[in-house]
Every structure is written in C-alpha cells, then in structure tokens.
Design goal:
Tetracycline Repressor, domain 2, elongated
C-alpha cells in the first residue's frame, strides 16, 4: 500500500502560516468541535473573508492545520536523524518529541477529530505509519554500533513497532481504559527497547534512559 508522502522541512514563511499556527493553538485548546473560523479571525484581527480566501471551508482549513503540524514534526524527525548522539538516544528524543505534541491536546479532543473528520484522521494515521522509515534508520544505526541484536529483522521490527502504535494509540482505547497517552507511550518504549537491545544497549538504557 502506498502512503501519502509528507514534506520533511518545516513550512516556509507564507501569508497562510499565521492562520495555520494560531489555528493549531485553537484546535488544541478548544477541539475541532469548539474551533470556529470566527474566533480565529477575531484573534488574528483578520476578516473571515481573508481566511476563506486561502481555505474555502472549515474542513479544508482543519486539514491544512494538521498537515502543518505533521510537516513540522517530520522536519524535527529528520533533524533528530542527523544528531551526533547515540542512536538509542535518537530513539528516545523522537519518542519525547511525540510526547511533547501529545501533551498539547486532550484525548477527548483527539476523539472529536476522528469522529467528525475521519478523512483527516486517516491522513494522520498515514503520517504515523510513514515514520516507520525514520525509526528503521535509527534501529539500523543502533544495530551497526552493537546496541541492537544482529539476528533481528529490523524491517519487520519497524513495521511491528509502528503498526502497534497505529492500532493501539486510538482515542477510544485511552478513553475506555482511562489511561494516559504519555505514560502508555513511555511504557511501550520501555519494553520494546528492552526486547531488541544487546547487553551493551541495555547498559546504555540503564545508564541514560
């Protein structure tokens, strides 16, 4: 299956950027249900007509807002891959970047997006699956440096890693079990890493992560 590609560089400085950036803040604060073009226009001291010039409907605006944040996250992942640090620390940094984004919005508001705008939610899921290549790059580097076991098929590992995130990390799962997304992700990271690392990798985890 071919997934939609996402740019890896943060968006440039365009006339639409202030709309997208403040729109994202409002969506994270109020959820898609409470988000209105009227409130966005008022905050930006801008007419609704100007906003609709760039984004003809609320759904298109929301789609662009979420594409804006996923593009920024993809860019941050690319920068993480170039860091001159231990690959296990790159993995940890990537996970913490996800946690930082998650902490900006409640699970109830994420649930609103999935129910009201399923097509946008599917794009987010495609974006998450596309991060498989980023994690595969990190896992390969860790294996080359002796931190991940040589006998492990990293292609399969990266598929399983991201597929579990996509299947389990759904709003209804967290609402049903009343558990924290952050704590669940960090717990998943913990037992996943311990399952693939060597003794050298385990020592690094114990010392640093």
């Amino acid at each position: 299956m071919t997934h939609k590609s996402f740019p890896s560089d943060p968006p440039g400085n365009t006339p639409e950027n202030p709309i997208l950036e403040h729109g994202l803040d409002l969506v994270f604060r109020d959820g898609v249900k409470g988000f209105t073009v009227e409130s966005l226009a008022k905050d930006l001291t801008m007419s609704k007509k100007t906003i609709y010039k760039y984004f003809p409907t609320k759904e298109i605006l929301l789609q662009k807002i979420f594409h804006h944040i996923t593009t920024i996250i993809a860019g941050k992942f690319q920068k993480i891959l170039t860091l001159e640090i231990n690959p296990l620390d790159k993995f940890e940094t990537a996970i913490l970047e996800i946690v930082k984004t998650i902490n900006r919005v409640s699970i109830h508001k994420i649930g609103e997006l999935k129910v009201r705008y399923p097509s946008i939610w599917r794009e987010i899921e495609q974006f998450r699956l596309a991060r498989r290549e980023d994690f595969l790059t990190i896992f390969k580097e860790a294996q080359d440096r002796g931190y991940v076991r040589q006998e492990i098929d990293l292609e399969l590992v990266s598929i399983i890693f991201m597929q579990i995130i996509n299947e389990v990390f759904q709003p209804e799962f967290f609402l049903k079990h009343d558990i924290s997304v952050k704590e669940t992700l960090l717990t998943y990271r913990e037992f996943f890493l311990r399952g693939i690392v060597t003794e050298k990798g385990l020592k690094h985890i114990e010392d640093r992560i």
